[in-house]
Amino acid sequence: MGTFYQPQCVLIDTDTLNTLPDRELVSGIAEVIKCGLVRDAEFFEWLENNMYALLARDPSALAYAIKRSCENKAEVVALDEREKGIRATLNFGHTFGHAIETGVGHGLWLHGEAVATGTVMAVDMSYRLCWIDDSIVKRVHMILQKAKLPIAPPETMTVDMFKSLMAMDKKVADGVLRLVLLKGPLGNCVFTGDYDRKALDDTLHAFCKS
Ligand SMILES: [Zn+2]
């Protein structure tokens, strides 16, 4: 208890993916897209160009996407074994996403679907803070739509629901909600509680009807 052991080797049988329905596969692809977005611009671009091959379950495209995702994750974990700063960046889109999963009731939206919408919301907020330019916003919309992932929360989600559910996030420290946000060129992000609260409010109001 309280100890961490990293694996000596990771073996992934990609044929197992063929047992998954499309919706589950695409849900997983949301996490792969997130991975490129927060730390690997070159991989993100590869995903933009190979999304249809992934959706068609092309074996070599799937193998490459999985390998690159694992390499990214291993790098992050090696840098930060106990989930503090940099490791939290893999949670990009998850604070908004977890609020959606809890808000609509677990099981209705798949995790990756909630993460996809959470990604769009975190990108929107990063743009409102003037931390990224609008080309990134457009590219994120395009790639998620290509993957047929949802880019807006369900209509039942309200601003107040987001606020109260996000306040329960494990990344709240001393009453401050810390978020992973994009900052700078594609492939860069920060984990911070130091942002203009108005940007968060504006994002929530932009995505919720009430
Ligand atoms: Zn996740």
TrEMBL record:
It holds the Pfam family DHQS_C. Keywords: Lyase, NAD. Residues 28-172 form the 3-dehydroquinate synthase C-terminal domain. The keyword DNA damage does not apply. It comes from Rehmannia glutinosa (Chinese foxglove). InterPro entries: Dehydroquinate_synthase (IPR050071), DHQS_C (IPR056179). Gene3D superfamilies: Dehydroquinate synthase-like - alpha domain (1.20.1090.10). This is 3-dehydroquinate synthase C-terminal domain-containing protein. It comes from the Eukaryota. The keyword Lyase applies.
